[in-house]
Amino acid sequence: MIVVDPRSPVPPFEQLRAQLADQVRTGQLAAGTRLPTVRRLAADLGLAPNTVARAYKELERDGLVETRGRNGTVVAAQDAQHRAAQEAAEAYAQRARALGLPSAEAIALVRAALGGA
């Protein structure tokens, strides 16, 4: 949960950036997790969209998130192994969608391939 204190001397964008960065670093937000849209998070927190956009931009600059245009902003993988796995997962998800597989079925196939993990 993110809380922005309007009475804090720390600017709202920095409060948001710091909290999201902490959630990424602690694993509370896992690689591949899609963040809310700028407008949605701004509305939820009572902030201006530009404030949220600035926080997202700085998180992207720091390599903690990736913005994928119409696909939104997602938590970036933090090392090469995770980044490769994330790319493979994205490729599989695109292929599963192209085949018309429901999400639950696509996930079940991955679990089966991993030996029930």
From TrEMBL:
Keywords from the named record: DNA-binding, Transcription, Transcription regulation
Coiled-coil boundaries: none
Record keyword DNA-binding present: yes
Pfam families for the chain: GntR
CDD domains (alphabetical): WHTH_GntR (cd07377)
Xref: Gene3D superfamilies: Winged helix-like DNA-binding domain superfamily/Winged helix DNA-binding domain
SUPFAM superfamilies: Winged helix' DNA-binding domain
SMART domains associated with the record: HTH_GNTR
Domain of life: Bacteria
Residue ranges of every copy of the HTH gntR-type domain listed in the record: 10-78
Protein name listed in UniProt: GntR family transcriptional regulator
